[in-house]
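Reopening this one. Same input as before:
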Amino acid sequence: MSDDEEPDLELLALLRQSLGLGQKDNTAPADTKVLKNAEYVYDNAIDVAIDYWNTKAAASTIWDLMQQSNYSSKTWSAHELHPKTKDEAAVDFIFTMDLLNFSFWSDDESSESFTVEYLGKKWTGYWSLVAALQRALEEGISITSSDFWQDGNECTDDLLKHVFRSTTATPIPLLDERIGCLREAGQILYKRFNCSFLNCINETNGSAAALVNLLVESFPCFRDESRFEGKTIRFYKRAQILVADLWACFDGQSYGKFADIETITMFAGMS
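Same output, byte for byte:
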């Protein structure tokens, strides 16, 4: 390590723990470190800068618009494609949805987008995924069941291609990667969480940050990280979206009740 390179504090902590030089404080509040990492990039980036005052002004504008439109957690369930029930089936749907919630646009800008036709409408972007899942359930396919994902005889790659079929000539991007995410998550839920994502929620005792951390530690598909100036930078976009979706779907109650929901950060969106 050069003199000007920052030591990897996480690695040092792990080394200390392995040598018995320090024990993890289980009483401390969970911390995803997403915001701290963003601050580190903000403080140390050379090629990119963020204007502090204009960022505050943008936040104020967004807040005002939310108030004017009466936007709240109830807005989430109001969309025709999102689950309307407040039960375990909704939890399974959200886990599946956010497990696969990435990359909807084709590299070929001249081609039509991946599109799903459902409820007499054509859906693109994020909504194409939600529509495909709802369509599959309506067709009697247990697409939100982790047991189903592991059943190679019933849940074949060809059937999954059918689930995510497009009304255009453009297929869903990264289908093989999505299938891999489903199968890997199914195995992890089977081996570690008794085949149920509900056990992940229960294990984190109503902490949004703890659930994000459990997701990224247990499911590699949710672990989006990078390196910057010798430091690990955490994004955890879909893990945070999953927690936010649970909170919104259940209006902060039941499976969506988190005492520290304010620890979830904003994240770039896709439509």
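So the earlier flakiness isn't reproducible anymore. For the record, Strands lie at 116-118, 121-123, 225-228, 231-234.
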